[in-house]
Design brief:
Chains A, B: Its EC number is 2.7.4.16. The structure is a homodimer. Chain A has helices spanning about 20-25, 70-90, 110-125, 175-185, 190, 195-210, 215-225, 235-245, 260-270, 270-275, 290-300; strands at about 5-10, 45, 50-60, 95-105, 130-135, 140-150, 165-170, 225-230, 250, 280-285, 305-315, 320. By secondary structure, the first copy, chain A, is α+β, with helices and mostly antiparallel strands.
């Protein structure tokens, strides 16, 4: 135990070879926003011209959310992108993030690819680093990110606005990440897709590197009555969205969009794994019928595939899942429980 | 390893007895700001009427920044207050915070006093919880907080504005926390103060529970040319502030304010321990001479003792410390280095 409080991501001009400065040097190129003050202060400035700042925070822990052997560049991307995904689902434009790194050691072989990959995402998503904190830990490494976005005042897309009659949309495809983890851990999916290296790699990549739907944020902001990102499993997340809105939903299982790889595996692993597995980082949203055409057009322009999978209905019961024949599909496991 | 991404501090109305909801329940009373959305969303809203949002982030790790045996209420207070201290030094008014908790287990005997103490500080400092994330970890527990404050546009007090002729002020007393840790670990201070339980307890408390100087924020905002909080040791932090401002300083060691307990121990432990020990969470600031009277008056009104310990001078060399006879005092260890 020490008496100190962590080393900010602050470059120390008096001691450029000090540990703090070394770490800050990795991350300084990512601090492109004037509000980051070039990482020479211990606070950052987030300017606002009267719009709301959307705040989201999400942490990943070695051995829990990623493997110690995962490449540092994928860990960096995942840590930032799970937060970007939340901003997208809230209709927010990324404004920046702060980073807390709990490290066992400061090896260049880990920090360099980590910082480089994070820097690429900073540019791709226009979400600059504003500041951070590095702490040493004797335990598993951990990366905690708090990200900020901007929305017009009072316009953040919440979870509570879904109304009966709204259509339920999801972006992209569902279940890929869960199958990717199954491949990684030598589960059924690995057997089913044995010999199909491309499908396996696709699923693995989907598990390791989320593809947040920030391109859709403007359409979500303009048209969705409620939205969230799918991180803990589609079925459970839909139940949460409905509960927050005081509504229920009727969802058709066969409409849930699957990738080619997932379609090839679904009969062996079961649909439940796909809709409860989590880590999708797609957007789930409710869109009033009158807005559906415009929403679809906006999604098309953004290059984001969207699929209507059901309808919001009145009631407080859990969402009802049915198959192509209208029979109820009972899902025993809605989402991953944490402890 | 699991496929999921952590459990937001989000209450799930469909599953009020679920683990997520249990955790959210501890913290819901702390989410008093409308922007927290009652912890039913995975993002929060920080409203702004055009003022700047000041962002700071700081993490504490079990076994590094606190002992596993430390009372949960002191851990909670420390985790929040180290961030509040940064806001104070930037002249910012607290606006809220997000909390990431990496826990090994969710024992009521730990979470209850942790959440209760955090709740008291939320009220004391008018800094509501806006949201958060809980993750499980097999390793040491960790608490990461990102806190927000408000300042008028463009007015955050940085590190770069100190100018030759400014006076260097510190609040309160310096070195108490370092001595408190020394007491805790059975160091020299424990010997020197043997029999003086009151002094020992005072120092221990100063180590465990920072007393952030948020009452001084308005005076800092109005009068300081540069400021930071003293977290890594006065000597090192002053060097950082000077370096960021492109100036040096001349400091008189005997002017550094000491508590009675520290004064009793200083000859045995050495002044260097006090000015390099860190964890003070006092404010260090430079104040232009024309502002000094008003600053002192503001501090007096805020009930925060301030002491001028030296002067900002031109030059890029490290600050010069002298004793009452004007002889240079060489400090070998400016502050704690992290790795």
């Amino acid at each position: 135990m020490t008496a100190e409080n962590g080393a900010r991501l602050v470059a120390d001009p008096h001691n450029p070879s000090g540990e703090d400065s070394l770490i800050a040097r990795y991350f300084k190129p990512l601090a492109t926003d004037p509000g980051a003050l070039g990482l020479v202060d211990d606070a950052a400035v987030l300017a606002s011209s009267g719009e709301d700042i959307v705040v989201t925070t999400d942490a990943v822990v070695e051995g829990v959310h990623y493997l110690a052997t995962d490449p540092p560049d994928t860990i960096a991307r995942k840590a930032l992108r799970v937060n970007l995904s939340d901003l997208a689902a809230k209709g927010a434009t990324p404004a920046g993030f702060v980073l807390t790194l709990a490290l066992r050691s400061k090896e260049d072989s880990w920090l360099r690819p980590f910082a480089d990959a994070l820097g690429e995402d900073v540019r791709t998503f226009a979400c600059p680093l504003l500041g951070g904190d590095t702490v040493s830990t004797p335990g598993p490494q951990m990366i905690s990110i708090t990200a900020f976005g901007r929305v017009p005042k009072g316009r953040m897309v919440g979870r509570t606005g879904a109304r009966p009659g709204d259509l339920v949309f999801v972006t992209g495809t569902i279940g890929d990440a869960a199958l990717g983890l199954d491949v990684l851990t030598g589960g059924v999916t690995a057997d089913v897709l044995k010999g199909d290296r491309i499908a396996q790699d696709y699923l693995l990549d989907r598990y390791r590197v989320p593809r947040p739907r920030n391109a859709l944020a403007a359409a979500v902001l303009a048209h969705a009555s409620a939205a969230m990102d799918v991180s803990d499993g589609l079925a459970g997340d839909l139940a949460k969205l409905c509960a927050a809105s005081g509504v229920s939903a009727s969802v058709e299982v066969h409409r849930v969009p699957l990738s080619q790889a997932a379609a090839a595996a679904v009969s062996a692993v079961g649909l439940e794994k796909l809709v409860s597995g989590g880590d999708d980082y797609e957007i789930l949203c409710a869109v009033p019928e009158a807005h559906c055409d415009d929403f679809a057009r906006g999604a098309d322009q953004a290059g984001v595939p969207v699929t209507a999978i059901g309808t919001v209905v009145a009631g407080l019961q859990a969402p009802r899942w049915t198959d192509a024949q209208g029979r109820e599909v009972v899902l025993n496991r809605l989402s991953y429980s944490h402890f």
